[in-house]
Amino acid sequence: MTSLDNVSTEDLRQVLAEVEGKKPSQRLMAAINYLEEDGATLQEVAERYGYTAGWLSRWLDRLERLADEPFEEVVYDEHRSGRPSKLSDKEYERFVEALHKSPEEVGFDAPAWSVPLARHYLAEEFDVEYCERHVRRVMTEAGLSWKTARPEFHKSDERAQEAWQDGFKKKRDNLDDEYTILAIDQTRQVLSTLIYAWFPKGERPSLPVTGAWDSIKLLGAVSDTDETFFLPCKENFNSDTTIRLLDALQTEFGEKICVVLDNASYFTANRVQEFVEDTPIELCYLPRGSPELNPAEECWRQLDQSLGNRLFETLDELRDAALCALDDINVPDVFTYLCP
C-alpha cells in the first residue's frame, strides 16, 4: 500500500497553509484525505478530485520528499527560482535592509513583517509587483524566517513607576524604625531544563529528559538589611501560600514588616487582605508590569544562571541545588530598585 512514512498529515496541513494555487492545494488535500480515512482506497479518494488512482499514488510518492526538500520544490510543477528579478541590485539591497528593520521604521503601522506587507512595500516603494510566493522566497533569501514571536508583556508607564517610587519614599519615611522593608516574589524551576551548553560544531545534540512538567515552586524575600528568605512550596501559588509566607516573614523579621510585592492574584486576594487587616503588616503593590523595580527578581536571575546549564533527574536534586545556589547569591540592595 502506498503511504507516507516520513511525512505526517500535520506536516501536509502546514504546507497546505503556505501553498498558492488550485492544483497544489488539491494534491495536498487528496493526500490528507487518503491518510486520514481508514479503509479508503486510492481510487475512491482520487475520483473525488477527478483523477485516477495512479495519479494519487505518484503524488504520495512525490510528497514523501517533503521530509528532505523545501515544499516549493515538491508541490509545484515548475521551480521558478530562475525567474528574473524586477528589482535592481541597489533596490534589492534597500529592500533587504528594510526587512531587517521594523515596519514602523519604514512607515508602516504594523508590529512585524508579513508576506502581504512586504509585497505592498515593494509596490509602494519600487513600483514592483511580485506574487506572494516570490516575495516569500525573497524574504527567505534575505535571512528572514517564519516563526512565532514570544509575547511581550505589558510594561508599566514610566510616570506610574516614578509616582509609585515617590509614594513609597513617603511611606517609608512615615514608618517607625522597627519596620523591616521586604520585597517578595515567586518563581518556578522546571525539572531537567537546559538553557545553554557547549557541544561540538555541526552536531544537533539531545539529552534524556524526564518529568519535563515537574517543577519546584519558591517564594522569596529580600530585606533592607541585606538578608534573604526563601520558602519552597509543594502546591501551586495561592492565597494560602501567600499568608504562610507573610506569617513566616513575621517570625523571621519581626511583627512590623513592610512588604513590596506584585499584583499576582494570590498576592491581592481578599483572604490576604483580611489576614493583614489586624496586623502591623504594610503591603505595597508595585505598578503592573514593573518587575525591574523588584529586587527579588535579581535573586531569580542569579538562580537561573546557576541552574541553567545543569541537568537534574529528580525534584529533590533540583530543590537541593536551588536552595544551595540561593545561599550563595549576591544579595541586591532593595533601595537601588525601590527608590533609587
Which descriptors would you attach to this protein?
3 domains, 15 helices, alpha/beta, Nucleotidyltransferase, domain 5, 340 residues
In which order are the strands of the major sheet placed? 3-2-1-4-5
Spell out the helices and strands N to C. HHHHHHHHHEEEHEHHEHHH
Q: If you compute it from the alpha carbons, what radius of gyration comes out, rounded to the nearest whole angstrom? A: 29 Å
Task: Please name the CATH architecture of the largest domain.
Answer: 2-Layer Sandwich
Using the coordinates above, name the CATH class of the largest domain.
Answer: Alpha Beta
- The pLDDT mean sits at 82
What is the SS-derived class? Answer: alpha/beta
Q: Distance between the terminal alpha carbons, to the nearest Å?
A: 72 Å
Biggest β-sheet: count, sense, barrel?
5 strands, mixed
From the spread of the alpha carbons, the general shape counts as: elongated
Q: What is the CATH topology of the largest domain? A: Nucleotidyltransferase, domain 5
SS element count, helices: 15
Could you explain how this protein is built, in words?
The chain is an alpha/beta fold and 340 residues long. It has three domains: 9-75; 89-141, no CATH class; 158-199 and 207-338, Nucleotidyltransferase, domain 5 (2-Layer Sandwich), CATH 3.30.420.10. It is 45% helix and 10% strand. The chain has helices at residues 9-16, 22-36, 42-48, 53-63, 71-75, 89-99, 115-126, 132-141, 158-174, 239-253, 265-268, 270-277, 296-307, 315-327, 334-338, and strands at residues 180-190, 215-223, 228-233, 257-261, 282-285. The protein has a five-stranded mixed β-sheet, sandwiched between helices.
